[in-house]
Specification:
It is found in: Cell membrane. The chain has 10 helices and no strands. The chain is mostly helical.
Length: 268
């Protein structure tokens, strides 16, 4: 009974520590956002800028409410989010599979790495028009662009994470006659998780960039297309700000989801 009470007490202290940490992070973040809004409003007042150059925060908030009410923002956000999730899933899964293989086969790594580096050296902005020409203006070309921009960073993190496993742990599993699956599940994955989650955080934010790049090149819907519409013949700067802030909010939400998942998976 005393042991259970001690465990409950420790869990309670950990929860309190996590709550205090969240509050310590949330307070400065809130103050920072309010400070940016105030500085933004002062800049508009002092510079006396017209709306098409720099709108007031209140005008952007009204436009945001309007686009939510008429469904415009949700229609574009839904497509961009789908592109990001599918592209990230494709890029992350292929990069982790190839990275795990290369981490165990150095000869294959020496053969393939120059081609991967050459592919990474070419900007995605330059490849995106080709993918749109080859695969059309639909969803597939945007997903491939997202996957390409996610692939290389996740690949490198996977190789580093798998190779960071301590050799004595692998030798111990060999002594115990563990199977390849048991070694992978019980040693390699837990030991490599910190580095893998670093790649996951980087990849999920890069996927947002890839989706926007693809929509800039050619798309009728999506937040990137909405930015093109706003900055085109309409000169609707308030709509452009709405699209930009929505992209930022989406990237933060995806990054926060990965952080939440990391806390749940790595609790042990």
């Amino acid at each position: 009974m005393v042991e259970w009470q001690r465990i409950a007490f420790v869990d309670s202290r950990k929860r309190q520590a996590r709550e205090s940490q969240r509050q310590a992070i949330a307070a400065p973040a809130t103050i920072g956002v309010l400070g940016i809004i105030v500085a933004w409003q002062l800049l508009v007042w002092i510079g006396d800028y017209p709306t098409f150059i720099l709108p007031e925060p209140a005008a952007v908030f009204r436009k945001f409410a309007e686009t939510i009410t008429n469904g415009l923002l949700w229609r574009h956000l839904r497509l961009t989010l789908l592109e990001v999730l599918l592209g990230f899933a494709l890029g992350f899964s292929s990069a982790t599979a190839l990275g795990y293989y290369l981490a165990h086969h150095r000869r294959a790594e020496h053969m393939i790495t120059p081609y991967l580096v050459a592919m990474q050296a070419v900007p995605v902005v330059a490849i995106a028009p080709l993918l749109v020409i080859w695969f059309g203006f639909g969803l597939l070309s945007k997903v491939l662009i997202c996957a390409l921009i996610v692939f290389f960073p996740v690949l490198i993190n996977t190789i580093v994470g798998v190779r960071s496993v301590r050799r004595e742990w692998l030798d111990m599993m060999h002594v115990w006659h563990a199977s390849r699956w048991e070694t992978f599940r019980l040693v390699e994955v837990p030991a490599a998780l910190p580095v893998l989650f670093g790649g996951l955080k980087l990849g999920v934010t890069l996927a947002v960039v890839g989706a926007v790049v693809g929509e800039f090149v050619g798309a009728r819907e999506g937040l990137g297309a909405l930015i093109n519409i706003a900055r085109g013949g309409l000169y609707d700067t308030t709509l452009l700000f709405v699209a930009l802030f929505t992209l930022v909010a989406m990237a933060l939400a995806l990054y926060g989801s990965v952080v939440w998942l990391e806390q749940r998976v790595r609790w042990w």
